[in-house]
Structures are given as C-alpha cells and as structure tokens.
Specification:
The complex is a heterodimer. Chain A contains 3 helices and 8 strands; from the N terminus they run βαββββαβββα. By secondary structure, chain A is α+β, with helices and mostly antiparallel strands. The radius of gyration of chain A is 14 Å and the shape is globular. In chain B, α15 packs parallel to α17 (354-367). The radius of gyration of chain B is 21 Å and the shape is globular. Chain B has helices at 2-16, 23-35, 49-60, 75-79, 84-88, 116-128, 159-162, 179-188, 201-212, 220-232, 239-255, 269-272, 276-285, 299-306, 309-324, 332-346, 354-367, and strands spanning 39-42, 64-68, 105-109, 130-133, 136-139, 144-149, 167-170. A 5-stranded parallel sheet of chain B has the order 2-3-6-1-7, with helices on one face. A two-stranded antiparallel sheet of chain B has the order 4-5. Classes of the chains: A alpha+beta, B alpha/beta.
C-alpha cells in the first residue's frame, strides 16, 4: 500500500512535529492529539520510529502499511464504522481508532504550542 | 561467467542512470538478450521506450539497428537495397551493410505497421536467426529484437508474428509522484551520448551459453504449478510460451550468478503473460509462489513482476548504496529520506532482511548525525 499518512506517538510525535515545522507545514494536512500527531499528504516527513498508514483504494480505513489484516478489509471497515463514522486511522500498540475527519492544513502556531505543552 | 554477469550488471546500472521509472524495461532487454528471446514494449508515444533501448544497446556495445516502421515502409529500408550489380547478372541479392540482418540488437518502433513482406521476412529472422530474401540467405547475429507499439494488434493475422516476442512490458506515462524526478532528471543528467560500452556481446554470448545449461530441475514443479494456477485464473499460456519461459528463467538465474535456478528466478514468467490485465492478475495469482523473487542484476524487473519483499528489499539496498556513493549535494538528504520512508513503510523490524537493516542503520545515522 502506498503511504497516505504518517503517525508519531509520544516522543516520536514531538520529533515528527519538529520535522514538520522545519520542512514547512503548508505541504500537509494533519491533526494533533494527546501524545499523537498524524500528518497526511504527499512526500511525507520521516523521523525514526514513525508508522506509515495506507488504505485499500477508496477505503476510509487507514492502517499500518506493513500489515495485512487476516480478515477481509470490508468486514473490518463495517465493524469500525459502527463505532466511528468517516475516515479512521487504526493504530496498534496500543490499539486505537482515531477519526481523521478533521484533517486540516497544519497550522505552525498551533503545532508549536502543542510542542511546548 | 561471474565476470560476464558483473559486466552486464554494470552495463544495466550505467544504462538506467537518468532514466525515471524505466529501469525494468532496460533490465528486461538485457534479460532477453541473454535468453536470446525478443521483447515487445507496449505504451503510448513519448514514454522513453526508444531511449531505454538505445541506452542498453550502447552499454552492451552491440551493433544496433533502429527504425520507425510505417504502412508504406519498403523492405529495403529494413533489410537493405537490392544489389544492382548482381541484379544485372540475374541474381537478386540484398546489400545488408548497416541494416537489420547485420544488427546484434534491433529496435523496430511501430513494429505492427510493417507490411506483410516485411513481417514475413522478420518472422524468419526472429525465429531462426536466418535472413532470406531472394538469393540472399544468411545467419544473422541478432541477440534481441525489441518491438514497440502503442497497443497490441487486434488483427488475428498478426498474432503469429506478435507471439514471437516472448517478453511483454507495458509502459505507462510517469506517475504523478515521480513528475518532479522526471523533470529534474531530464534537465540535468547527461544522456550518455558517446559513453563507452561497459559490457560486450561476448559477455552476452557467454551468459547465454551458461543460461542454456542452467539446471531447472528444482523449480520445474513450481513452474508447472504456476502455469496451472494461471490457467485456473483464465490466463492461457500457449505451450510454446510455457516451454520458452524456461529460457528466461535460466537467463535470470545466470544474471543473478546462479548455475541452478531457484524460486528466486521464477518471476520472468509474469512478463511471458501476453496482455497487461492478465499480467496484473498473474501477479496476484502467483504472489505467494513469487515471494522469494530477487535478482541483483535485474532488481526492478524482479520487484515489478513479483511485488515480493525480497526484490523490494534488494532494490532499496541498491538505491541507498547508490546515494551513499554520490556527492552530498542539494537534495541528497531528501532522497535518502525517501528511501528510508519506503523501508519503514514496507518492512517491520522483524521482516527486514539483514542487508536492508544494515543500510537502514546507516541511513538513520546519516540523517541524525
């Protein structure tokens, strides 16, 4: 699967945030959360420890590009849709479903504030 | 054999410099030359098909003949004019100097537009390596003929001719995500005009002889199973194509430095499948059978055929090594980041081959000094 987004958690999320600020935030959309940063777009930023997310063509479910579900993806999509509507990132270790409906162009001021918090 | 394979590998590496997304085409032509088979490139105009052929021809040091066929192309434009001096004696001989019958590598663009006279003569050249026209009968030194066309012909009358091209590559315009790379490469890179060949036809011939002697016993059952799987999916390979696929499998093995074919060498079977949608289906159908595919001389073609992790890892290692051997100019670290991004998007720590893990460590150290 081609990567559509990259996710960092904990200290890796902060490293990723600094990398995004260095490169210029206007290139990507994303969202920040509690110890979590998701960045989506082309030519994604990289820092050691990030995980890349992708999805089967047209699917609203994005998951680790290195993994392959052992059940058909449409079944997983339906199960997830009962809990979270719209585009969703399915993260592992620890497991989490993160709604991606609010992916906006990353605002540098907001990202800096999040890094300081 | 090892030295010849090394020189061919270096020739391929030289030929792909500056080409974007056409590495598999160059590699397939080299594979076909060693297998003594022919290649058909199908794709729209302006997709660097002829440039890819020219580059590998130059790098292999072969005597090359190239022509763009049209509906009104005369046989003399391909095979040479009639010898008028001999004609006065009542003998119809062809002067072949510099023409296709003397070529070691031939490239025929719009190959299916040729007249019946041209294609009938070509059939003998491609099949038997013999040129027959009038009183002229001679062996030709042709190692590989590359035909190109915008699309496969519908006309059943052309099916026999088309079937002589064992390997098929379908060339699409550069994808959006590589446009910047294409524009940059097209502007900057020397297209290798006048670059000295890095291999020779003698190397090709040495490997061709070795390819014919490759022991296929270990993979023959898997090859038969692969053909059964393809038939089960509605992809029919003619008996001729099925048998001849062993020649390209043997060629892949020698180019990888092996005298016995292994599961890593079955991937050329994908390029023997005649149509583009069938090739896509074949990749899915044969995915687990081709998982071990890899080839150090033909990394991109192996990866494209198999979509297998071993071939992908091999390509990424080579890409990283190529970057480390370059000067660290503008954009170097971004390119390195692109390689590690692809590594981390495709491999877990547990699934990463040792060579790839080592290269990843080096990349991380370079990007985080």
């Amino acid at each position: 699967m081609a990567p559509l987004a990259v996710v960092g958690r904990g200290s890796i999320a902060r490293d990723l945030g600094r990398r995004v600020l260095d490169a210029g935030t206007g290139r990507w959309t994303g969202c920040v959360g509690d110890g979590l940063l998701i960045v989506a777009g082309e030519q994604l930023p990289w820092v050691d420890g990030v995980v890349f997310l992708g999805g089967v063509s047209g699917s609203p479910l994005w998951f680790d590009t290195r993994l392959e579900p052992n059940v058909p993806v449409p079944l997983v999509e339906r199960a997830v849709a009962r809990r979270v509507a719209g585009r969703v990132a399915w993260l592992h270790d620890p497991d989490a479903l993160v709604p991606l409906g609010s992916l906006d162009v990353l605002d540098p001021t907001r990202l800096e504030a999040w890094l300081r918090s | 054999m090892i030295e010849a394979a090394t020189r061919i590998r270096e020739a391929i590496e030289a030929a792909v410099q500056g080409l974007v997304d056409r590495e598999a085409v160059v590699e397939l032509i080299a594979l076909a030359a060693v297998a003594q088979e022919h290649v058909l490139l199908i794709g729209p105009p302006g997709t660097a098909k002829s440039e890819a052929v020219r580059r590998i021809s130059r790098a292999l040091g072969g005597q090359t003949f190239e022509y763009l066929l049209g509906r009104f192309t005369e046989p003399s434009e391909i095979f040479g004019p009639v010898d008028l001096a001999r004609l006065r004696d009542g003998v119809v001989e062809t002067r072949t100097e510099g023409m296709l019958p003397e070529a070691e590598i031939a490239f025929l663009d719009e190959v299916f537009l040729g007249s019946t006279a041209i294609l009938n003569t070509l059939l003998g050249v491609l099949n038997e390596r013999r040129f027959r026209r009038g009183h002229t009968v001679c062996d030709v030194p042709l190692r590989v003929c590359v035909g190109a066309s915008n699309e496969l012909p519908d006309d059943p009358a052309l099916a026999a001719f088309s079937d002589r091209f064992l390997l098929r590559a379908f060339v699409a315009p550069i994808p959006d995500n590589l446009l910047e790379t294409l524009l940059d490469a097209g502007r900057r890179v020397d297209l290798g005009q006048g670059a000295a060949p890095t291999a020779s036809m003698a190397d090709v011939d040495r490997l061709a002889e070795a390819a014919r002697a490759v022991d296929l016993a270990a993979v023959r059952p898997s090859l038969a199973q692969a053909i059964r799987l393809l038939r089960g999916a509605g992809i029919e390979l003619s008996d001729r194509r099925a048998v001849k696929s062993q020649r390209v499998i043997g060629a892949a093995a020698v180019l990888a430095g092996r005298s016995e074919a292994t599961m890593a060498d079955l991937w050329p079977l994908i390029y023997v499948v005649p149509e583009v949608e069938q090739q896509k289906l074949a990749r899915d159908v044969l995915r687990s059978l081709l998982e071990a595919s890899e080839n150090t001389a033909l990394p991109t073609a192996a990866e494209h055929a198999s979509r297998g992790p071993a071939a992908r890892a091999n390509r990424l290692v080579k890409a990283a090594e190529a970057l480390f051997s370059q000067e660290r100019g503008a954009g170097w670290s971004l390119k390195l980041e692109g390689v590690v991004r692809e590594i981390d998007a495709g491999f877990t720590a547990g699934s990463m081959p040792e060579a790839l893990a080592a290269v990843r460590t080096r990349i991380v150290e370079s990007l985080n000094p």
